[in-house]
Amino acid sequence: MVPSRKLLLLIAGLLAAVAPARAAEFYTEDLRIPMAEAGPQGLEAFLVRPAGTKRYPLALLSHGSPRKFDDRATMSAHKYYGIALEYARRGFAALIVMRRGYGTSPGGRVDSAGGCAKAAHLPAAAVAVADLRAAIDAMAHRADVTTSGMIAAGHSAGGLATVALSAQAPAGLVAAINFAGGRGSRDDDDVCNPDGLVQAFATFGKTSRVPMLWVYATNDSYFGPDLARRLHDGFRAGGGNASFIAAPAYGDDGHYLYSVAGRPQWTPYLDAFLRGRGLGHDVLSLPDPLPPPHQLNEAARAEFAGYIASMLPHKAFAVSPNGGYGWRAGRATADDARRDSLAACMKWSPACTLYAVDDQLAEPSQARATDQSARARQ
Question: Which one, out of 114, 171, 216, 344, has a CA that is 20 to 30 A from the CA of 198?
Fold first, then answer.
């Protein structure tokens, strides 16, 4: 007996219902944001979005500022990949832009607030806003990004920058998130000119009308609960629209709640906020974990698990027929990761090939070509 068409459709539907959802694919791109004040080099940036072909609304992500000036040079947009991925999973084109003076973005101390006692937080915030606006202007001309319905989110000094941006809201900005925002922390519970910082937030509140979410952990060593409340009260007194969440203590220092490790705690806040403004998206699955190379022993498989868990692009994993391996992460380009992982593997075996690059299996032709170039450099 031949099954009817309706029965076949019913069976197909049932199979689809029980089949595991395919993990989403994501597109990444290294960028330089044009900005006259940044010179010909422009601003360092990194884009993460779903791999589809439509235009995705921009999620503009702003980083913090380390307490030591020299640490700024070690910063990289790639280090925020895990954070950006959470916005890409929610249907945004997430852009991490390194402001002037951070990472490879030129600028030196252009955002200096001056001496600690009279730290000028408003001029420093104005510098950050100019950088963010340059990034928005650049994204507005892309075919895969739209600044209509965009959001902004920032952490620490990036949170302050995001609040400042909302006070001069560019067209298309519909919501913003401030994670532990502030500026001037030079030691635990020691902030330069805290009264001036409160006044800066009050100034932003006079013109900011974009719906905002503010999240501060109760054990934040940079901007503790009392100061965080003062910042929020000052902002609201001027008319600013911000919902405040005093998040439970996170780890040893709640200032780092907004992190890859802290995702289970902060992403529910983000989702509730977005849904409340009609911005909620179905959360896309993370990329499928790659199977380990068959030639690896148990200890080497644990190393491969470390490779999979790494959120520092660009990365690559190389392997030899006898089970030797090498991997590197946090490289400036995928080619750098390929080269360095092959070189690491060839310390143990002369016959190494690439197995994976970032979150995908390496193409055989690519693996062979890179392998030969790496051999030539030995």
Answer: 171
Q: Give CA torsion, residues 72, 78, 84, 86, to 10 deg.
A: -120
Helices and strands in the chain: count of H runs, count of E runs: 10, 14
Cα dist from 157 to 61, 153, 227, 376, whole Å: 12, 11, 15, 45
d(CA 98, CA 180): 18
Which pair of structure tokens corresponds to residue 122?
């408003």
Q: Which residues pair with 94 in a beta bridge?
A: 48, 59
DSSP string covering 292-316? PPTT--HHHHHHHHHHHH---SS-E
The answer, as to whether pTM is greater than 0.90, is no
Quick one: average pLDDT of 67-92? Answer: 96
State residue 360 phi and psi, 5-degree precision: -130, 155
Nearest to 33 by CA among 46, 48, 43: 43
Q: What is the distance of C-alpha 7 from the center of its chain?
A: 47
As a whole number, the mean pLDDT across the chain is: 90
Identify which has the larger pLDDT, 130 or 21: 130
**Location of structure tokens 């507005």:** 140
| DSSP-based three-state secondary structure for 73 | helix
